[in-house]
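[step 3/7] fold_predict: job queued, chain A
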Amino acid sequence: MSESQDSDQLYDAAVKLKDAGDMEGAAEALLKIVAAEPDHLHSNMALGVYLQKLGRLEEAIKHAVKVTEIQPEDPFSFTQLSVIYQRCGKILEAEDAMAKAHALQGRPGGKH
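[step 4/7] structure written:
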């Protein structure tokens, strides 16, 4: 089994923890995944959301930024970053991220 397959199984287990109400446990499981596989997209996306909900704002932002580095052409990556910035009280950063998302949406070949 490849590292990515292992990470995907661990990710699924982390989502089950979150669904069972264990947000902290889910975040810790996801942090283990990105420690082994820093570019695991779904783990970084989930960590942005979960850590923000846990009040771990700087960590949440770090993972949301990582998603934009993994997928620099995906408008949704910047939209998620904007939302996390907003929820963390960083309005100027949120506006910049949303502007980037809009620019990518308007570009030929940009994802919708």
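[step 5/7] annotate
The radius of gyration is 14 Å.
The helical segments are 3-19, 23-36, 41-53, 57-70, 75-87, 91-106.
exit 0
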